[in-house]
Write a structure and sequence with these properties.
This protein is an alpha/beta fold. It contains 14 helices and eight strands. It has an eight-stranded mixed beta sheet with strand order 2-1-8-7-3-6-4-5, with helices on both faces. Helix 12 crosses helix 13. Keywords: Signal. InterPro entries: Cofac_haem-bd_dom (IPR007314). This is Haem-binding uptake Tiki superfamily ChaN domain-containing protein. It holds the Pfam family Cofac_haem_bdg.
Length: 439
């Protein structure tokens, strides 16, 4: 029974490795379109043989009564270096692992996504075709360079699909930073000026080098970079004093849904995982934190919707209706290229805002009536066999694609089992009291 369960997950991995393993002469196998046809039975036989070989190898390396991934011998090199071979995409709809190459896979994935979603059929276009997802989310754990590399590959993949306009939405910048972002892409292209104009060290603060290639690609190809986030001060105000405190600021807030039970449960689970329940977090503090998280999600969804709906031949506004927080240190450059209703966006943000789709994706769908596509990363340990040491992959409820990569080097060393899945983490300061709350 245990062997059959493992085989069920090894078989899709075997299909992936048919495209990843080198041939005997050191040359990678020919692309699928040029490979000779061997028929369904031949392909299944080859994949089955490879899966059987992997299982046989595990059986030789592990105790005969153990197929537990947490006991697999781990690849020690993951503790000292990053290797693109320690990355696989899991297609949750197809139930199979694939090479981590969005450029080869994204067109087919989008087509299948549009055909398999009932919501898309209801929102069919005027010519009778299904609406394709125009917004693709590429999530990240902020310190993992393999996630940022995958984000760039996703951007390149979508950019090369056709001639439709593409923008890059980034949680790392505020909506009010738009003039500085336009100045970078269409103006001087100065990284140092962008860092100063957006107060990077205080507004985001993480290693800018992780995002430099993405921004350079945007400038080279004149792709508008769109700031998505609310100002940090606004989020901190809500976390500390609640939504009522924003009345005094006279800053209009986005339409907010605070009734999504699954969204709230994921938030509470994240607080507990981050240790929030051990320090005496109050009920009021917990709810304020949830209001702040929801504000973050709704604001970013609204920012994306504004981009998709805004009239062409004009620069995206920096912060209409939010003058107290919208001041920008640079003037707006010449207008960005015109865009139409067919434009696309690849939106980059933390996994907690994307996983399960209850954060930003579904809140965007509520606004625009269109489906979205999401890719979330999972940092896990890798076995010496070249496979992720996981018992089973995440399912389609979490995302369309799950990108399995090795963990950040400073976290991977000595790990004997996959790290805890990426769940929401505390991002705000909570007021604590003597009365703890049970989570």
């Amino acid at each position: 029974m245990r062997a059959s369960r493992a085989s069920r997950f090894m078989l899709p991995l075997a299909f992936a490795f048919l495209h990843l393993l080198p041939s005997t002469n050191g040359v990678r196998p020919a692309p699928r379109h040029s490979a000779p046809s061997v028929g369904r039975r031949g392909a299944l036989a080859a994949a089955g043989a490879l899966a059987g070989g992997c299982l046989a190898q595990h059986a030789a390396e592990l105790p005969s009564d153990s197929l537990d991934p947490s006991s697999w011998p781990l690849d020690a090199s993951q503790w000292t270096s990053y290797d693109p071979r320690r990355a696989l995409l899991y297609d949750t709809r197809a139930g199979s692992f694939l090479p981590a190459d969005p450029r080869r896979l994204i067109a087919t994935a989008l087509q299948k996504r549009s055909l398999q979603t009932e919501a898309v059929a209801a929102a069919a276009s005027a010519d009778g075709g299904a609406a394709e997802a125009r917004v693709l989310f590429a999530a990240e754990a902020r310190a993992n360079p393999m996630h940022h590399a995958a984000q760039l590959e996703m951007i390149k993949a979508v950019h090369r699909l056709d001639e439709r306009p593409l923008a890059i939405g980034m949680q790392m910048f505020w909506r009010q930073h738009q003039p500085a972002l336009d100045q970078f892409v269409y103006g001087d292209g100065s990284f140092s000026q962008l860092l100063r104009a957006t107060n990077w060290d205080t507004s985001w603060g993480y290693d800018f080098n992780q995002y430099a290639k993405i921004l350079a690609y945007a400038r080279k190809h004149q792709l508008q970079v769109v700031g998505l986030s609310p100002p940090t001060g606004l989020v901190r105000l809500v976390a500390a004093r609640g939504l009522e405190a924003t009345i005094q600021t006279r800053v209009p807030l986005p339409e907010m849904d605070l009734t999504n039970r699954e969204h709230f449960q994921r938030y509470v689970a994240g607080v507990a995982a981050a240790g929030g329940g051990r320090g005496g977090l109050t009920q009021a503090g917990l709810l304020r934190g949830y209001q702040a998280l929801t504000l973050d999600d709704e604001y970013m969804a609204e920012s994306i919707a504004r981009y998709l709906a805004y009239q062409p031949n004009r620069v995206l506004p920096a912060g209409e209706g939010s003058a107290p927080l919208a001041a920008s240190p640079v003037s707006s450059p010449s207008p960005a290229p015109a865009r139409t209703g067919s434009c696309r966006m690849v939106a980059l943000m933390e996994t907690r805002h994307v996983r399960g789709r209850v954060g930003v994706p579904n809140r965007l769908t509520r606004r625009i009536g269109e489906p979205t596509f999401s890719m979330i990363p999972q940092s896990v340990a890798w076995a010496t066999t070249g496979l992720p040491a996981i018992e089973r992959p995440l399912d389609g409820k979490e995302a369309d694609w799950v990108l399995y990569t090795q963990s950040e080097i400073h976290l991977a060393k000595g790990a004997r089992s996959p790290p805890v899945p990426d769940t929401p983490r505390l991002s705000y300061d909570f007021q604590r009291s003597a009365k703890p709350i049970q989570i």
